[in-house]
Amino acid sequence: MPLPTIDDVRQAAARIKPYVHHTPVLTCTSLDHMAHAQLFFKCENFQKVGAFKFRGACNIVFSLSEADAQRGVATHSSGNHGAALAHAAQLRNIPAHIVMPHNVPQVKRDAIAGYGAHIIWCEPSQADREATVKRVVDETGAVFAHPSNDALVIAGQGTAALELLDDVSELDMVLAPIGGGGLTSGLALAISACSPRTMVAVEPAGADDAYRSLQSGTLQPSVNPQTIADGLRTSLGDLTFPLIQQHVEQIVTVSEEAIIRAMRHVWERMKIVIEPSSAVPVAAVLDKRIEVSGLRVGIVLSGGNVDLASLPF
C-alpha cells in the first residue's frame, strides 16, 4: 500500500466534514506560565466518540464502495478506534466487528456496545489481537480497518492538523502522543506539507517502541508495554514508521508519574477531562523533556475517555 500524501489528507477533510466536529483550540494561562511558552491545545477529547480516532474511522468507512460496505468492517482496538469505527459504521448502517482485549477500561467497553457493534474478546497482546481479528475477517468477510497502519486512517487523522493550522498561526512546534503512529504520522504529513514546523512525538517510557524504532532506524515491536496510557500500547507499522522517519524531528519519553501529574494539571487548571494518553505530550512540556521556552506550541489532546471509577489521583 502506498504512503498517503497531503492530497489524501485534503480529500479526507472534505469526505468526513459532514460527520466530524471541528474541535476547538483552548489555551490556559497557568499552564503557559508553568511551561514558559504559549500552549495551544487541540481538543480532540471533544471529538465525537471522545477521541481523534473518529476522523480516520470515518474516512475509511465512507471511502468504501457500496459492495464492500455491506460486508461490514472489523478491527482490533483498545477502545477509542473501536468506538470510532463502530459509530462510523452505525452512521452508514453497516456491521462492525470489534476485537478488544479484556483489560480495557469499562467506559470504552460501554461506548462500543452502545454503538451496536459486535464485540469479540481477546488476550491483551498484539499477537492475539491480530490473530483474533484475522479469524473474524475470515468468518464474516468484513473489511479490515487497522487502528493506525492504514493510508485512509492516517489521512483522516491528519485532518486535525489542517484544522489546527487554520485556527492558530505561526506555531513553532506541534506535540502529539504516539502509540501505533496513525495520529502522529498523519499530523506530521500535513504539517510538513502545509506549514513546515517542528513535529515532536511523545511516548510513555514503559512503552517506548517508537522511540527505540526511530533511534535504531528499524521497527522495534512493543512487547508487554507497561503504562497507564492504554491507548499507546500498540506498535508502529510499515506505513506509519516511514512517515515518522521522514517528518518527525524527535520522539521523547515520559515517566508514569509525569503523565499522571500532567493529567491532573489539565483537569484542575483547564477544567476539561482528558485520558492518560492525552496527558503524555503535556507531561513532556511540564517535565522539561523538551525545550519549549518562548515558543508557540500546539499540543494535540488525543481523547477524553476515562474510567472514572479508577482515576490515578
Plain-language structure description:
It is built from 13 helices and ten strands. With 313 residues, the protein is α/β, with parallel strands linked by helices. The chain folds into two domains: 6-51 and 150-310, Rossmann fold; 54-144, Rossmann fold (3-Layer(aba) Sandwich). The strands form two sheets. It has a six-stranded mixed beta sheet with strand order 1-2-10-7-8-9, sandwiched between helices. Strands 5-4-3-6 form a four-stranded parallel beta sheet, with helices on both faces. Helix 9 (182-194) links the parallel strand 7 (173-177) and strand 8 (198-204). The radius of gyration is 18 Å and the shape is globular.
Index terms:
313 residues; six-stranded mixed sheet; alpha/beta; 10 strands; lyase; Serine/threonine dehydratase; ATP binding; four-stranded parallel sheet; Rossmann fold; Ser/Thr_deHydtase_PyrdxlP-BS; 2 domains; 13 helices
Task: Describe the structure in brief.
By secondary structure, this protein is α/β, with parallel strands linked by helices. 45% of the residues lie in helices and 15% in strands.
Question: Can you lay out the helices and strands and say which pair or pack?
Answer:
Elements: H1 6-16, E1 25-26, H2 29-35, E2 38-43, H3 53-61, H4 66-70, E3 73-76, H5 80-92, E4 96-101, H6 106-114, E5 118-122, H7 126-140, E6 143-144, H8 151-167, E7 173-177, H9 182-194, E8 198-204, H10 209-216, H11 240-247, E9 250-254, H12 256-270, H13 276-286, E10 296-301
Parallel strand pairs: 2-10, 3-4, 3-6, 4-5, 7-8, 7-10, 8-9
Antiparallel strand pairs: 1-2
Helix pairs in contact: 1-3, 1-8, 3-5, 3-8, 5-6, 8-9, 9-11, 12-13
